[in-house]
């Protein structure tokens, strides 16, 4: 009987250990999968130089975006303001705007640059109205400028009805469009400086009082390489976040719309994508004979060249699936001038064409001289 009890006990211990192992493996799998999924209703991770989407989920769904609207407000103001440091007086229309506020008062005096910091760091809705009036002449004219810039950027599934992002009919974007807008804005050094600032003091020139600003974007303080960008919340939009990092020469933008754990999920997605993808100069993979035979030329051969430079984010597995297709003649007929296109190189990832460029002559290919032609004639005769 004791042997049976011993056997049962050993079996129980073995089952317990096996169960722990299975649970542990499952937990690891769930942890890994978490970084590749999102609870957001719309989500994108985009590499900014190529606009390649490294992760996406409902990226083309039109949705409200709350105060991430101010990314467009800020870049529109920066591009259209003649002097960001010019101080101007706050009008009554910018006073008492609902929602998050700097609590501007009629007669306060700030520069556009200072209000842009308050706009992006503490999400001042009143700042957005003050900026719009000063730069555009009116909020309605400024909103028109925002929509025109959105079209220029390629954000064709977006429309702005106001400058601050409070819920309104006809005010929407998509995760993809918002990533495009942010990628564009981050090319501007003034915008980058503003959205990456953690804390700042600004002065009301009307009474020489100061306001201390602390950025609401928690990832600036916790995520390695974070450079911004903007938080947002309304009842209709839910919690929204646009964040960006720079690591190993690669800039990534993450957009999550209507996402409860927006900071945690954005950090996980950016971490995962920055580990999985690397920027690679795919033109460095070219390996073709750059010498071509020449017929009826003074020289029997000539050099060919390319001048393209194509950097693209790829995973290690994708890099193995890159295919280079070279199309060029075996013989060229003289004469040809330097820079003549004589072929092309194409770069494919699987069956998707990523890049193409011309192969051209890097020197003049001159025809045979009269003396050479006479020598050839007598040699053949």
What do you see in this structure?
With 381 residues, this protein is α+β, with helices and mostly antiparallel strands. It has two domains: 42-276, DD-peptidase/beta-lactamase superfamily (Beta-lactamase), CATH 3.40.710; 282-371, D-Ala-D-Ala carboxypeptidase, C-terminal domain (Peptidoglycan synthesis regulatory factor (PBP3), Domain 2, Sandwich). The chain contains eleven helices and 17 strands. The strands form five sheets. The chain has a six-stranded mixed beta sheet with strand order 14-16-17-12-11-15. Strands 2-1-9-8-7 form a five-stranded antiparallel beta sheet, with helices on both faces. A two-stranded antiparallel ribbon has the order 3-4. A hairpin with a 2-residue loop joins strand 8 and strand 9. Helix 2 runs parallel beside helix 4 and helix 2 (70-80) packs across helix 5. The protein starts with a helix and ends with a helix.
SSE layout:
Elements: H1 2-34, E1 42-47, E2 52-57, H2 70-80, E3 87-89, E4 109-111, H3 112-121, H4 125-136, H5 139-153, H6 175-185, H7 189-195, E5 199-204, E6 209-214, H8 219-222, E7 226-234, E8 238-247, E9 250-257, H9 262-276, E10 278-281, E11 291-295, E12 301-305, E13 311-314, H10 316-320, E14 322-327, E15 331-333, E16 341-349, E17 352-361, H11 370-380
Parallel strand pairs: 11-15
Antiparallel strand pairs: 1-2, 1-9, 3-4, 5-6, 7-8, 8-9, 10-13, 11-12, 12-17, 14-16, 16-17
């Amino acid at each position: 009987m004791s042997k049976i009890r011993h056997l049962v006990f050993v079996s129980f211990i073995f089952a317990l250990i096996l169960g722990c192992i299975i649970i542990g493996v499952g937990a690891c799998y769930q942890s890994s999968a978490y970084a590749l999924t999102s609870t957001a209703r719309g989500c994108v991770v985009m590499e900014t130089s190529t606009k390649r989407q490294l992760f996406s989920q409902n990226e083309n769904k039109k949705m409200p975006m709350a105060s991430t609207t101010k990314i467009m407000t800020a870049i529109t103001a920066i591009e259209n303001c003649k002097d960001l440091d010019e101080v101007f007086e706050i009008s009554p229309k910018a006073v008492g705007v609902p929602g998050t506020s700097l609590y501007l008062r009629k007669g306060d005096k700030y520069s556009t640059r200072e209000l842009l910091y308050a706009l992006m760091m503490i999400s001042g809705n009143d700042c957005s109205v003050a900026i719009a009036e000063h730069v555009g002449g009116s909020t309605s004219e400024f909103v028109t400028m925002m929509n025109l810039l959105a079209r220029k950027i390629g954000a064709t599934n977006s429309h702005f009805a106001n400058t601050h992002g409070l819920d309104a009919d006809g005010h929407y974007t998509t995760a993809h469009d918002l990533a495009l807008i942010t990628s564009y804005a981050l090319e501007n050094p003034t915008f980058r400086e503003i959205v990456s600032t953690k804390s700042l003091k600004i002065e009301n020139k009307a009474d020489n009082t100061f306001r201390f600003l602390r950025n609401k974007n928690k990832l600036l303080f916790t995520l390695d390489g974070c450079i911004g960008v903007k938080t947002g919340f309304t009842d209709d939009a839910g919690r929204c976040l646009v964040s960006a990092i720079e690591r190993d020469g690669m800039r990534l933008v993450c957009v999550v719309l209507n996402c409860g754990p927006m900071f945690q999920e954005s950090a996980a997605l950016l971490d995962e994508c920055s580990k999985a993808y690397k920027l690679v100069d795919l033109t460095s993979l070219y390996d073709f004979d750059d010498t071509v035979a020449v017929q009826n030329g003074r020289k029997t051969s000539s050099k060919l060249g390319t001048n393209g430079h194509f950097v693209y984010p790829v995973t290690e597995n994708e890099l193995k699936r890159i295919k280079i297709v070279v199309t060029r003649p075996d013989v060229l007929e003289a004469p040809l001038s330097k820079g003549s296109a004589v072929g092309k190189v194409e770069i494919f990832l699987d069956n998707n064409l990523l890049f193409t460029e011309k192969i051209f002559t890097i020197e003049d290919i001159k025809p045979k001289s009269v003396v050479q032609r006479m020598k050839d004639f007598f040699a053949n005769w």
